[in-house]
Amino acid sequence: MNKRTRITYLAAAWCLSYPDAELVARVPMMRSALDEFAGALAPFEEVLRRLESQDLMAVQAQYVQEFDLGKRHALHLSYWTDGDTRRRGEVLGAFKKVYRGADILVDTHGELPDYLPMVLEFSATVDLAAGQDLLQSYRPSLELIKFGLLRDKLPHTHIVAAVCDTLPGASPVDEQAVMRMAGHGPPTESVGLDPYDPRLLPMKGA
Q1: Which PANTHER family match (predicted)?
Q2: Range of the structural domain that residue 147 is part of
């Protein structure tokens, strides 16, 4: 099960990142690795098929439109809980503390440490248990990303859903249920939500 989870996380990390020639070259490897496990390839199929069949510049333009030019599909986990608030800096420090605790230098490639593809790659290649703790702590964020992608009928929906399926407990049936899971109302960019995972609070000095 751990091998399947690691492969799912690494493929998800790659497929949710900005598409480039290196990612396209990895498609056969992802297909082969995912196909070792029944049903593991299906959530990735549409994204992989687009990478194989569409012009790369067109795929890149679509990615920028959907993921970089607005917050509707923001892939930064703490954005959905803390918005663009001063408190978010403390939360980002907690992510860095987890990475440092693995005794391995994590290259952020200029991204914030709560960037979902980075958390997934860390989980897959460095420390599965610590990475899954982060993902579970931000389960409501994952679910909100999933519902946002679903609303706009993007194929990445199925990939995020596959990640959610690796975590304990059933996924909420709708966004209101996600809010109940988190114990909050809808997130607002200007205010942000109070942290809903008390385990992160002692890390404020990180």
Answers
A1: NITRATE REDUCTASE MOLYBDENUM COFACTOR ASSEMBLY CHAPERONE, NITRATE REDUCTASE MOLYBDENUM COFACTOR ASSEMBLY CHAPERONE NARJ
A2: 2-205
